[in-house]
Amino acid sequence: GQQLNQSPQSMFIQEGEDVSMNCTSSSIFNTWLWYKQDPGEGPVLLIALYKAGELTSNGRLTAQFGITRKDSFLNISASIPSDVGIYFCAGLYYTGTASKLTFGTGTRLQVTL
Amino acid sequence: NAGVTQTPKFRVLKTGQSMTLLCAQDMNHEYMYWYRQDPGMGLRLIHYSVGEGTTAKGEVPDGYNVSRLKKQNFLLGLESAAPSQTSVYFCASRKSTTVAYGYTFGSGTRLTVV
Fold it and tell me: Which residues of B3-30 are buried (b: 16+ CB within 10 A; e: fewer)?
């Protein structure tokens, strides 16, 4: 099955630093989603992007839907310890009510004090 | 507001044993999904259901069966467990009218097959 190329696979950063991660695909999507997964929990939606070129913020998080509809990035500014976790991008393609959600392979973020 | 609840949270099976994972949602969602998560692989869709009494195969359905007898419940069955089915299993749901808003996930079931 199709998977998205997500990079980097892991990051070790110091508290206060900014973080950037991205996803690329060979297919176009209607919607890009960014999820965060804490240890022992399921993914939780952080940001949803609905239009090519769209730039959306949610607190310290900023994400963009690429113009080609085949890529997206997520930035986290001024990281804090609770940002630790695995971040997944997901591309959603839908027609009518039928949909297919494809996940990236994840970026594991570690924040040191 | 419980959202999506998965039981059990952990399970160890011997090769060849069978078991059923239960997913329950209290949000009146029509669509429900079962994913498996393996290291470095992201989440992959096993089976899904677009409504009570209906199921369909995802991208990795072999070795699994599902049933959706009630709208709020989606069961994932392993008839004869294999070590390759060691994984973390996630259930998700969404309303049929909110396709663009993503899915709500449960907290997962960690299954080990020895």
Answer: ebebeeeebebeeeeebebebbbeeebb
B8 vs A37, B110, B112, CA distance in Å?
Answer: 19, 8, 12
Which residues of chain B make contact with A33, given a CB cutoff of 8 A?
A: 102
What Cα–Cα distance (Å) separates residue A100 from each residue in B2, B79, B91, B109?
25, 27, 15, 23
C-alpha distance from A24 to closest chain B C-alpha (Å):
14
Read off the tokens for B69: 């007898």
With beta carbons under 8 A apart, name residues in chain A contacting B107: 40-42
Residue-wise pLDDT tens digits, A44-60: 999 999 999 999 999 99
Segment 63-92 of chain A within 8 Å of chain B by CB: 88, 90, 92
* Residues of chain B falling short of pLDDT 70: 1, 98-102
Q: Give yes or no for a contact between A36 and A44, defined as CB atoms under 8 angstroms apart.
A: yes
